[in-house]
Amino acid sequence: MHAYRTHTCADLRLANVGDVVRLSGWVHRVRDHGGVLFVDLRDHYGVTQVLCDGDSPAFAEVEKLRAEWVVRIDGEVKARDAALVNPKIPTGEIEVFIRDVEVLSAVEGELPLQIFGEAEYPEETRLRHRFLDLRRDSLHHTIMLRSKVIRHLREAMHEQGFTEFQTPILTASSPEGARDFLVPSRLHPGKFYALPQAPQQFKQLIMVAGFDRYFQIAPCFRDEDPRADRSPGEFYQLDMEMSFATQEDVFQVIEPVMRGVFETFGGGRPVTPEFPRIAYRDAMLWYGSDKPDLRNPLKMQVVSEHFRGSDFKVFAGLLEQPGTQVRAIPAPGGGSRKFCDRMNAYAQSEGLPGMGYIFWRALDAGGMEAAGPVAKALGPERTEAIRSQMGVGEGDAVFFLGGLPAKFEAVAGKARNVIGKELGLTVEDRFDFAWIVDFPMYEKDPETGNLDFSHNPFSMPQGGMEALETKDPLDILGYQYDIVCNGVELSSGAVRNHRPELMYKAFEVVGHDRAFVDGHFGGMISAFRTGAPPHAGIAPGVDRIVMLLAGAENIREVIMFPMNQRAEDLMMGAPSAPTNEQLRDLGLRLAPKA
Predict the structure, then answer these.
(1) Which of 22, 110, 292, 310 is most buried, taking the most CB atoms under 10 A from its CB?
(2) Whole-number Å distance between alpha carbons of 548 and 344
(3) What SS3 class is residue 219?
(4) What is the largest CA-CA distance in the chain?
């Protein structure tokens, strides 16, 4: 017999009745039923009920067992009485009568968190004792889901002719939108490696090297502030690149991969059969976001003309300023003053003066009327034109926001989401995907007014050199695209700029000369001069995929050993202060932060 087990704690069934077996695992809980001790024994695979009565030679030892002790038991498999069958677990039709028990490891003192029952604990406690937290069924299941998702992604990419390669972790700093993590070099004092924010340059160099289809489950390192859907420090993505490929080729490869993983692990929830393609500017207009939640059917519309020159002076005055708009959010079923006032207060809580509104209510004599200060100021003709455009009627409402879109779009997008949820319009139990395409190549920094890349600096501009030389930079679009699902951005990608002269010109537009490009991307520029194929790629985020599939609200729930919100590893004590010897080896001295 094996030293520790003949079966796992999920294996035994009625077919094993009469067998003498050996199990090992953790004591999940102990129950004393009047001289009969019941122990739920748990391992990675499941739970088996084992029991011991007063006649067993092992009774005295079993009495000593406590939660989370690690034990080995030998015993005979017996069928449970029909009334005692537990249908909630696969082993619920049998139990094991203990003949012998050995304590392999006992718990010292009190556990900082209990496993059975999955009680709530502060996140600090959970992260500091993550090895215990991971024993709890819900988190254990989520981490196993993550492993299965990664395996599925790998197999799906192999099936499409992609080959997995690993790229360096210690590399050169590259400006890609976030702060780098720097690693000092002992052999080259005063110089630093950088951890890659993404394998961006390497994946393109793999294409230049003649490998046609690359992928890897790539670790990426960015010194960014954490959010609920962003882990500080590191994250993983399904990184892929393909040669002689257009934007459409990338869509045809990655869409079935994404659909497949959500259909396989989504618990039967519907998945978009064909991902719609929405231009960035349309997404911002209709949804107030470049990662819209399409489970919510509401679409905003521009209604500026109905307010221009009207007696609603707030919006009429705004529209005299260049670049301003009035947009409307329909609210089917939201036609009450109470709901409208609540949404107006919501806009104020988000930093806007408020939201105008009109709601339509039934008249006692039949028909309906438009109500609210906006309707009174606009008059019946303009109000009816708005109702007709927005496709609303009795019992419905429309909300209005005005000004420069850049200043109110974000709040409008949030308000759309709140309206959809409060009115029960958002269908929760499904996965709604979309491609967001035609991103602007450039944008203006709102504080400095300077031009910068809005997405990926290595992207191919639509229209090529002619667009860069003749168009207003803010009108140039890139071959850049995102996948979004349920309001979460899952990936970004682009057709790459593989021509040196085009890349120099693209950087020139934002004020960088050739020396800057050569200094920061010299390896890639040199490679492109040796003959580079047109190539394109994308990189869906693994952590966010699992987060959606698991229904988790915080990304730390899908990472085995995450950091906290202050980018600290409470379990391992990182970051930690270096020793003086380590600093001397690296030729470094710590100075107070100014």
Answers:
(1) 292
(2) 31
(3) strand
(4) 95
- The predicted pLDDT at position 175 comes to 65
pLDDT of residue 34: 87
What pLDDT score does 354 carry?
87
Tokens matching residue 230: 């962003």
Helices (H), 160-246: 200-208
Distance CA(584)–CA(62), nearest Å, equals 56
Q: Which residue has 């509104």 as its token pair? A: 357
Residue with tokens 């692990």: 265
> Using CA atoms, how far apart are residues 234 and 563, in angstroms rounded to an integer?
9
Instruction: Provide CB contacts within 8 A for 272, sequence distance 6+.
Output: 259, 294, 431, 432, 433, 434
230-234, 302-306, 555-559: least confidently modelled range: 230-234
Place of tokens 């976030």: 178
By DSSP bridging, strand 233-243 and strand 397-403 are unpaired
| Helices 200-208, 514-528: crossing angle, 10 deg rounding | 40
In the block, tokens 């409060």 appear at: 422
230 SS3 class: strand
Give Cα separations from 322 to 284, 311, 317, 412 (angstroms). 19, 20, 11, 20
Listed in sequence order, the residues at least 6 apart from 33 whose beta carbon sits closer than 8 Å to its beta carbon are none
175 or 465: whose pLDDT is higher? 465
Task: Assess contact for 312 and 306: CB atoms under 8 A.
Answer: no
Among 75, 95, 72, which residue's Cα sits nearest to residue 14?
Answer: 95
Q: What confidence score (pLDDT) does residue 448 get?
A: 87
Q: Which residues pair with 30 in a beta bridge?
A: 39
Write the DSSP symbol of residue 159. Answer: H
How far is residue 392 CA from its own chain's centroid?
A: 34
Give residues with Cβ within 8 angstroms of 579, minimum separation 6. none
| CA distances from residue 123 to 105, 113, 162, 229, 571 in whole angstroms, order as listed | 27, 11, 40, 16, 12
* Mean pLDDT for the stretch of residues 507-516: 94
Contact 215, 164 (CB under 8 A): yes
- DSSP 3-state assignment of 377? helix
Q: How many residues does the chain have?
A: 594
Read off the pLDDT of each residue in 127-135 and give the average, rounded to a whole number. Answer: 97
| Mean pLDDT estimate for the chain | 95
Q: Which helix H or strand E contains 82, and what residues bound it? A: none
Whether the pLDDT of residue 87 is over 90: the answer is yes
- Residue 58: CB partners within 8 Å, gap ≥ 6? 52, 73, 98, 99, 100, 101
Alpha helices, DSSP H only, in 456-573? 464-470, 500-509, 514-528, 542-550
The pTM score is 0.93
Q: Model confidence at 535, in pLDDT bands (50, 70, 90)?
A: very high
pLDDT at residue 176 is higher than 70: no
